[in-house]
């Protein structure tokens, strides 16, 4: 400093500032301040100041009385508490609240706003909303997560810019929803209790119980011919009312044997966006079910597909492309904590074990934009209590919990974002096709807002048509989107017949077919079920020259690429154009087109490294 003063002369002269004097003038006893109490910030009143300001800021001792608890604590970190008031004074409170109201749906009421301090010390203005309908709640959720609300408010500001906290909104949003705990195989009644930060349960003594209303969800799994429903007679006294909830499209085994009951058809979906409903419609079991269905939710984002051809290391390939899908999600929903909001669904336990190991290896090597992810199951997730503070939390405890489980374990559950991994199967016999169709339908419909497909491009598979589908970003229309696909293709391959009456007699042959389907669902990587990394070979055939399923020698045709307002499958990695489809829900007849008006061969390779440049 002395050398600089000698070289610069008068230009280097400055007035000394007494920091202690400045701080004492800025922070006087009785002032309202924000202060750090251990790991969290809170608002309080300054009741004691240091006699002198030490050289090291961390040695400063300010005494604060918490506004919420009234307790006194000593801290070395304080700051002014008038940040929000300064902003409102400059912008105008009425003007700012007006900007917020004009950015929200007109039939939504704002009835209270108050200053709020996040645990990390971020000052904010919390605005309470009066929401009367589930569709309005879904609409607000999409406005927040799409950044549309934040962008519209900021357009009306000049010198200030606000940020809408997506994670905090989701926490409040999730508290408005029901939390469901299911325990299979329903042999005992369970008593729940809190065990630290987890839910625990104990088995009650065997005895019958009486309920005013008995509700049985996923009833098609219980009332299939070989389903276990003895608990209805052994554990439950005759209830006054019984409600069976069932979906033909979620049924993997065809016929069911319901007791006589009045049938009521529910046609309005309240948890999934219109695009998710339209995308899943291609895999519905019957036209009758598809024609009646609709969604109360907003349009939502398109369903994303990551298709690839395997180089022989199947699980490593799946892990690599799943990481790419995670980067896509982190980019689209930047700022949103994925803690218990993202689910990875796989076909069976064997796939789960191999894939989990491969994915965790990729987590260690991939640059995840500073994020720390931990994989848990649905069972672990459902036992975790929300908003429970654990002292001395480790870095692992602070990780974002991502759910990784099988589609079977996801029944009756849902998540904000769902990634469907390795669910495709080759079109085969009726029993296998019924399982192949239903497992994809079940997985997609677990998503509330965003569904993503990650799959090896399987020639002759259920998802192959996505490789010849191109997203069009026109204004979305629900009826047009539903008309883009037909259930005729799925019906032709599964031949599902809706029961004309609730009591159905099932032959021994049907029962054996159902056993075959169960075996396929348990191990979809076997050759007769879900695709291995290479197609099945004829005896003596060279695996390096074997044609893919669906290809014919000398076949030169390719399938026409069609537009879709539902599916965004532009991120694909395939070497050869698709020449034939075994399942094409886009076609009115459910078969591939014989003639091609134009040929567009697309080959894209998008890795997580490319997407990470956006962070």
UniProtKB/TrEMBL annotation:
Q: Where are the annotated segments for Disordered?
A: 505-555
Establish whether keyword ATP-binding is in the entry: yes
Q: Which residues cross the membrane?
A: none
What Gene3D superfamilies does the entry give? P-loop containing nucleotide triphosphate hydrolases
Taxonomy, superkingdom: Eukaryota
List the keywords (alphabetical).
ATP-binding, Helicase, Hydrolase, Nucleotide-binding
Biased composition annotated in UniProt, kind: Basic and acidic residues: 510-526
Q: Name one GO molecular function term.
A: helicase activity
Name used for this protein in its record: DEAD/DEAH box helicase domain-containing protein
Taxonomic source organism: Cladocopium goreaui
